[in-house]
Design a protein that fits this description.
Elements (H helix, E strand, L loop, with lengths): L16 E5 L5 E3 L2 H4 L8 E6 L6 E4 L1 H12 L6 H10 L4 E4 L5 E3 L2 H7 L4 E6 L4 E5 H34 L1
Antiparallel strand pairs: 1-7, 2-6, 3-4, 3-5, 4-8, 7-8
Length: 167
């Protein structure tokens, strides 16, 4: 049996990009690789409107723990904490897997993001995102540009640090 990729600490991670079709009941088959990673207090995933992009975000216990810790690190009453609490805790839907490995996306979430037929599911280590195909193609192009520029800036900073440290 092929062993999956693991992140720090030995936990498995969500990787790759898949095009999937929503059926008439807004069900989507979660890739088997993702289902195996979505362990937590129930057989399924949490799903909510992404805070950082115009898509849905989903994952298991690791995702919940990451957001929970980030929120808990902020002072009670901090406006950013309050915004994250409303966006994350208030936006969560628990989506259980059916016997075919599908989740049913809530109608309101599908309507909010225009998810009607084909969607793109993108693995991002401890979470995955669900996009319309067109929106993801535009997002991917923007992210590639940002990654290229960020990598170029990082290389310049590393080179400057090496040259500055050698003198």
């Amino acid at each position: 049996m092929e062993r999956g990729l693991e992140g720090p600490g030995g936990f498995a991670v969500f990787l790759s990009t898949f095009d999937k079709q929503l059926d008439a009941k807004r069900r989507i088959v979660v890739p088997v690789e993702f289902r195996a990673l979505a362990f937590g207090p129930f057989e399924g995933v949490i799903c909510f409107p992404s805070i950082e992009a115009d898509c849905l975000e989903a994952g298991g216990q690791a995702l919940f723990d990451r957001y929970d810790q980030m929120i808990e690190d902020l002072d009670f009453g901090d406006p950013v904490r309050s915004a994250l609490e409303v966006s994350f805790y208030g936006g969560i839907h628990r989506l259980g897997f059916d016997t075919a490995g599908r989740i049913t996306l809530p109608e309101a979430l599908c309507d909010s993001f225009g998810l009607t037929d084909w969607v793109t599911v993108v693995g991002l280590k401890d979470r995955f995102q669900i996009w319309t195909r067109d929106a993801f193609q535009a997002h991917r192009a923007d992210q590639r540009d940002a990654a290229r520029q960020g990598l170029a800036d990082l290389r310049l900073a590393q080179r400057a640090a090496r040259l500055g440290g050698a003198g």
